[in-house]
Design goal:
heterodimer; A: about 350 residues; alpha/beta; Rossmann fold; seven-stranded mixed sheet; two-stranded antiparallel sheet; 9 strands; about 10% strand; B: about 350 residues; 2 domains; about 35% helix; about 20% strand; binds thiamine diphosphate; binds magnesium ion
């Protein structure tokens, strides 16, 4: 939900209140740039073998590909507050959450390429990423993240652990029964669960107006007595402020929260999407709210960075993304015999 | 008559032609308008019939399948899209405990005319949750008719039969047979009549005649068996290829007759191996043709592992033309049983 751009004095106040330091904001900027470059580099490689005729089965990366360009601020704003032991359960659009949770970019890229060195040894691919060390997982089934994160939160509460679980999901997923069922369970048992709904206006080709009876998820959250925040998902500071309160409360045993982050995806639902359901003008309109330059401008306004610093961070992020993808490209494919292993432990 | 590439357009045309004459048909599901249910089964319909009859639903499988049950109970014929069969878990209760049983449980009071369209299959890198076949699950539950078209001609005729059937019919369209430009196509361009016609359920099709062995399959695997049969022919082996077309009702007679003729049967399936189509067909065949079988029935199916993402892994589990050919050769050269 767009909020007016703060004046310098207001910005200083907001940042100070949120406990955001120069280093923290520069790190957020770098992380968002890493996600952006990672997604764009994956997109670049995805189209190898798929042009001029788009064939999903061709090229070094096969199958569907859902990228999160434009949605970086939501992932970074929330995950920069998490510890390694905290759990994140993500969706079919999982790369930004994974990177923000600290999943190794090289192993992530290698998994997307189906390589032996990937997070899941090539078995899962882009929609099925698992990292036990970082407590990260995701699913290609819409609506699956809510109860699974609630289960982790349930375990944390049971064991008296000061950890939280975060379920990311789209606004489309919030129509699924698991959303309502999980809100009820989380409120009933006061679970340390944070539900983050990324409202990017579309579920596949279906615009929000065609699928939601009322426009806001926070209203649904409040209906279950879950403290709920409506934030500007294109503004990492706004996301961070809400997430900080929500996560702190959950760690302190005060139960769940919902964050509704209004944002926009600049690319198609999946790569190869003809996007007949929206106009180019609409996409351009949202470009003005691009979360990366927005943060960059604020860093400059605060006197915390100049163009050269920002440029250096972008270049560093780009190198890191390219190195991760190069690692993936150079890695070997798995041995076909591995296909028959691992159903049971 | 004109040529048509793939089952997607054939299914969409069947629905269109029935909808034009019948007010009871409504189309429900995710992305059934702009995206034609992603795999094209509903393409072109919303432009013609509007958003009141062709309805994009929220992502709520349980609810829209339940609504199909409720609407069918009061005389509608819902056509419901389950975008990928893999998503059935999100709505299956309404399907297997209600849609499939209400006619029986109500002592025959409530007909359940629902046509479900769903996309199946792998082979293009979509991994564990978007590559399954799963028709065996539906065929296992009494109350669903299970339709697996392998050709555009059948897709159109079987869909029209489904739309005129007073029972729940699930149509499993293989993604690699849709003929859509973004996926590989393993079918053939065919002549398909422009006018309406039906293809009867429970009638298997002998796609190729042969006397040395029988290969039985459904959907995409029919085409792979036909390609394997061509190679076998070069080796002097005459393979008969049977397309079961509908798992429920099942045409066991055609299978048994062929097994009696050749004495050797290979069942090929892209569904999981155990407790599925291959086991059921093998049972029916031995039941009807036991004394004519020269060797035990063989099967080639997904070896009870999920469909992995990486290409070499995926190739290792989904039956290919090569492996069908090898399995068929091994079957033909296996020593015959001495009774
Ligand atoms: C249970 C289930 N139904 C349908 C789908 C197909 N599908 C994949 S993504 C998607 C849209 C999701 O929209 P949203 O939750 O808003 O997430 P976004 O793609 O916008 O990030 C749909 C319908 C699925 N994967 N799982
Ligand atoms: Mg969305």
């Amino acid at each position: 939900m767009w909020k007016p751009e703060p004046s310098l004095a207001d910005l200083q106040y907001l940042v100070e209140k949120a406990g955001l330091t120069r280093d923290a904001l520069l790190a957020a900027y770098r992380q968002m740039c890493l996600i952006r470059h990672f997604e764009e580099t994956i997109a670049d490689r995805y189209y190898i073998g798929k042009t001029p005729e788009f064939n999903m089965a061709a090229g070094p990366i096969r199958g569907e590909m859902h990228l999160a360009v434009g949605q970086e601020a939501v992932a970074v704003g929330v995950c920069s507050l998490l510890e390694s032991q905290d759990v994140v359960v993500s969706t079919h659009r999982p790369h930004h959450h994974a990177l923000a949770k600290g999943v190794d970019a090289s192993k992530l890229a290698a998994e997307i390429f189906g390589k032996q060195t990937g997070l899941c040894r090539g078995k899962g691919g882009h929609m099925h990423l698992f990292d036990k060390e970082k407590n990260f997982s995701c699913s290609g089934i819409v609506g699956a993240s809510f109860p699974q994160a609630a289960g982790a939160a349930f375990a944390f509460r049971q064991r008296g652990q000061r950890n939280v679980a975060v379920a990311f999901a789209g606004e489309g997923a919030a129509n699924h029964g698991t959303f309502a069922e999980t809100l009820n369970a989380a409120a009933l048992w006061q679970l340390p669960l944070i539900i983050v709904v990324e409202d990017n206006m579309y579920a596949d080709s279906t615009p929000k107006w065609a699928a939601l009876a009322q426009p806001h998820q926070f209203q649904r959250g409040l209906g279950y007595n879950v403290p709920s925040y409506l934030v500007d998902g294109m503004d990492v500071i706004d996301v961070y402020r809400a997430a900080k309160t929500a996560i702190q409360r959950a760690r302190d045993g005060q139960g769940p929260a919902l964050i509704e982050a209004v944002c926009y995806r600049y690319r198609g639902h999946f790569e190869g999407d003809a996007e007949e359901y929206r106009t180019k003008e609409e996409v351009e309109l949202w470009r003005a709210l691009d979360p990366i330059p927005r943060l960059g401008n604020r860093l400059k306004k605060l006197g915390w960075a100049d163009d050269a610093t920002l440029e250096a961070l972008r270049a560093e992020a780009k190198r890191a993304a390219e190195a991760a993808v190069a690692f993936a490209e150079q890695s070997p494919l798995p041995d076909p015999a591995e296909a028959l292993t691992g159903v049971f432990r | 008559m004109r040529t048509m590439k793939g089952i997607a357009f054939a299914i969409a045309e069947a629905i269109d032609q029935e909808m034009a004459e019948r007010q009871d048909i409504v189309v429900l599901g995710e992305d059934v308008t702009y995206w034609g249910a992603v795999f094209g089964f509903t393409m072109g319909l919303h432009q013609k019939y509007g958003r009141d009859r062709v309805v994009d639903t929220p992502i709520t499988e349980q609810t829209f399948f339940g609504m199909a049950v409720g609407a069918a109970a009061v005389g509608m014929h819902p056509v419901v899209s389950l975008m990928f069969v893999d998503f059935l878990g999100a709505g299956f209760d309404q399907m297997y405990n209600h849609m499939a049983k209400n006619h029986y449980m109500s002592g025959g009071q409530f007909a359940m005319p629902v046509t479900v369209l769903t996309a199946i299959g792998g082979g293009y890198g979509d991994a564990e949750q978007h590559s399954q076949v799963l028709y065996g699950l539906f065929a296992h539950v009494p109350g669903f008719k299970v339709v697996v078209p392998a050709t555009a001609y059948d897709a159109k005729g079987l869909t029209i039969s489904a739309l005129r059937d007073p029972n729940p019919v699930v149509i499993f369209g293989h993604k690699l047979l849709t003929g859509l430009p973004f996926l590989p196509f393993e079918g053939q361009e065919e002549d398909v009549p422009e006018e309406r016609y039906t293809v009867e359920f429970g009638k298997a099709a002998v796609r190729r005649e042969g006397s040395d062995l029988t290969m039985v399959a459904a959907g995409l695997m029919v085409h792979r068996c036909l390609r394997a049969a061509e190679r076998l022919a070069q080796d002097g082996i005459a393979a008969e290829v049977i397309d079961v077309r509908t798992l429920v009702p099942l045409d066991a007679d055609t299978l048994v007759a062929s097994a009696r003729k050749t004495g050797r049967v290979l069942i090929v399936d892209e569904d999981y191996r155990s407790y599925g189509m291959t086991g059921e067909l093998a049972f029916r065949i031995q039941e009807g043709a036991f004394e004519a079988l020269k060797t035990p029935v063989r099967r080639l199916a997904v070896p009870d592992v999920p469909i992995p993402f990486s290409e070499p892994l995926e190739r290792a589990v989904i039956p290919s033309v090569d492996r069908i050919y090898e399995e068929a050769r091994a079957l033909v050269t296996a020593p015959a049983r001495t009774a």
